[in-house]
From TrEMBL:
<keyword id="KW-0479">Metal-binding</keyword>
<protein>
    <recommendedName>
        <fullName>Aspergillus nuclease S1</fullName>
        <ecNumber>3.1.30.1</ecNumber>
    </recommendedName>
</protein>
<dbReference type="GO" id="GO:0004521">
    <property type="term" value="F:RNA endonuclease activity"/>
</dbReference>
<comment type="similarity">
    <text>Belongs to the nuclease type I family.</text>
</comment>
<keyword id="KW-0378">Hydrolase</keyword>
<dbReference type="Pfam" id="PF02265">
    <property type="entry name" value="S1-P1_nuclease"/>
</dbReference>
<dbReference type="GO" id="GO:0000014">
    <property type="term" value="F:single-stranded DNA endodeoxyribonuclease activity"/>
</dbReference>
<dbReference type="InterPro" id="IPR003154">
    <property type="entry name" value="S1/P1nuclease"/>
</dbReference>
<dbReference type="GO" id="GO:0003676">
    <property type="term" value="F:nucleic acid binding"/>
</dbReference>
<keyword id="KW-0255">Endonuclease</keyword>
<keyword id="KW-0732">Signal</keyword>
<keyword id="KW-0325">Glycoprotein</keyword>
<dbReference type="GO" id="GO:0046872">
    <property type="term" value="F:metal ion binding"/>
</dbReference>
<keyword id="KW-0540">Nuclease</keyword>
<dbReference type="GO" id="GO:0006308">
    <property type="term" value="P:DNA catabolic process"/>
</dbReference>
<keyword id="KW-1015">Disulfide bond</keyword>
<dbReference type="InterPro" id="IPR008947">
    <property type="entry name" value="PLipase_C/P1_nuclease_dom_sf"/>
</dbReference>
Length: 288
């Protein structure tokens, strides 16, 4: 009954939603992360993910990986779970200092949300516990926020809202720095190298995961004290890449073109791949 209602609401939201202003990787970024993850699920995780997905999305987690952005406006409580703001003078992340919402409630940020939804999904094994959660929504939030936390500017500086208030020119288009990292670099890559087809981009990232990055993937998946997820590590990497690459040499009004695109694309490639590999590993640990 509840899941049917959820399914109906989801369908309506998908049909009537319009593109979000600037939230998370754009739809292609989230699609890419979940597509990479889906192909790496073990049989047990793939089965459980399928059980949790609504009928119209069976075998297709990636089709719902932007769901969390579309529900921000009705689940207003969720909007602060997509990012982390760190102090302007810092290029590192500190859970107790930074993981809170605008009211100061501890744990309400992207890394706290990953821990929370991971815990909820673990209750899948225990049918008496799991009734208190909507595990379909937990899965969709986890899959989405794992993408967001790997977008460097989703762990950005407070005063510029992760680059949302920094106006830039992306080639001939006016946008903001945050959107360059959510969408523009990805869209330009697809247009320039893959005839605007996201599938080719996913294939190349998968080839690098089993090729030039193959000796790094176990390190990406590694977690302190055998924890299931290590969101504080992902957040630290993001703010560090934000300082080193996203914000670097950019000020209000900067003209960003080939030089910025070519030097930053490797960072975007790496973060998409890490997010996908780690999401799969987390789901494999939870359900495996
Ligand atoms: N709003 C405030 N800070 C943000 C960030 N780092 N990313 C996305 N939206 C934000
Ligand atoms: Zn988001
Ligand atoms: Zn964003």
């Amino acid at each position: 009954m509840a899941s049917e209602l959820f399914q109906m609401i989801s369908v309506l939201l998908i049909v009537f939603s319009f593109p979000a202003l600037s939230h998370g990787w754009g739809t292609d970024g989230h699609y890419i992360v979940c597509q990479i993850a889906q192909e790496r699920l073990n049989d047990a995780a793939a089965d459980t993910v399928n059980e949790l997905l609504p009928d119209y999305a069976k075998n297709n987690l990636s089709s719902l990986c932007s769901w969390a952005d579309r529900v921000k406006f009705i689940y207003t409580w969720s909007s602060e779970l997509h990012y982390i703001d760190v102090p302007d003078d810092s290029c590192s992340y500190n859970y107790s200092r930074d993981c809170k919402d605008s009211n100061g409630v501890q744990g309400r940020c992207a890394s706290g949300a990953i821990t929370n939804y991971t815990t909820q999904l673990l209750s899948y094994r225990n049918s008496s516990d799991n009734r208190q959660y909507n595990l379909t929504q937990a899965l969709l939030f986890l899959a989405h926020i794992m993408g967001d936390i790997h977008q460097p500017l989703h762990v950005g500086h407070t005063s510029d809202k992760g680059g949302n208030t920094i106006d830039v020119h992306w080639y001939t288009t006016n946008t903001v720095l945050h959107h360059v990292w959510d969408s523009s670099i990805i869209d330009t890559t697809e247009a320039d190298f893959y005839s605007s087809d996201v599938t080719g981009y996913v294939d190349d990232l998968n080839q690098n995961i089993t090729g030039k990055w193959s000796n790094q993937t176990s390190k990406w998946q590694g977690c302190s004290r055998n924890a299931i997820a290590c969101p504080d590590i992902y957040a630290s990497e993001s703010i560090s890449a934000a300082c080193e690459w996203a914000y670097k040499d950019v000020t209000n009004g900067s003209e960003l073109g080939d030089k910025y695109f070519n030097s930053r694309l490797p960072v975007v490639d790496l973060r998409l791949a890490q997010a996908g590999v780690r999401l799969a590993e987390i789901l494999n640990r939870i359900f495996g």
